[in-house]
Design brief:
It contains three helices and six strands, in the order αααββββββ. By secondary structure, the protein is α+β, with helices and mostly antiparallel strands. A hairpin with a 2-residue loop joins β4 and β5.
């Protein structure tokens, strides 16, 4: 009645192994083998691609770490030697001061001339390194970003909140105030 070698069709209506001929089975097996071979080949390609991408990622990470390390080293050197050019430009000023002090029998005029020449050297060195004076002229509008008012004084004929006198020059470096100029300011009348 029931043949144990015969398998009933599957639930979806597709023929079971007993319903196909040996030629169809061989063709199906060959197709399955071809599909399996193609899938294995694709798997190997994907593994090779994955390995290559992983290596590229590791190289990129190493490059990034090396770049960051080099940048850190360069910044450390820049901080360490940033003042080098400034110090180099001040050496002639130190030399001039030492030469002036070495003269034992200098007259007051010679001392004054030497001090003025040394001051010119110092101002030149400061300017070369972008250290500029803040010395507002009388009547200049008071600027709290560059000036520091020490007192307010009556100044007839002068507009209120303007510079009357400069008590001490200020300095800026690359548009940043190192020291504001100390000034007296005209009082409102």
């Amino acid at each position: 009645m029931n043949d144990p070698t015969k398998i009933e069709p599957t639930l979806d209506g597709a023929p079971g192994p007993a319903d196909i001929s040996p030629e169809e089975r061989e063709a199906a097996d060959a197709a399955n083998a071809a599909d399996l071979t193609a899938a294995l080949a694709e798997l190997e390609n994907l593994r090779a691609s994955n390995k290559e991408l992983s290596e590229q990622y590791l190289r990129a990470q190493a490059d990034m770490q090396n770049t960051r390390r080099r940048a850190d080293e360069e910044m450390a050197k820049a901080r360490k030697f940033a003042i080098e050019s400034f110090a180099e430009s001040l050496l002639p000023v130190a030399d001039s001061l030492e030469a002036g002090l070495a003269i034992k029998d200098a007259t007051p005029e010679q001392i004054r001339e030497g001090a003025e020449a040394t001051l010119r050297q110092l101002k030149s060195a400061l300017e070369r390194n972008k250290v500029l004076e803040i010395a507002p002229a009388a009547g200049t509008r008071f600027d709290p970003h560059q000036h520091q008012a020490i007192s307010m004084v009556p100044a007839p004929g002068q507009e209120a909140n303007t510079v009357v006198t400069v008590l001490q020059k200020g300095y800026v470096i690359a548009e940043r105030v190192l020291r504001p100029a100390l000034v007296t300011v005209s009082a409102p009348q």
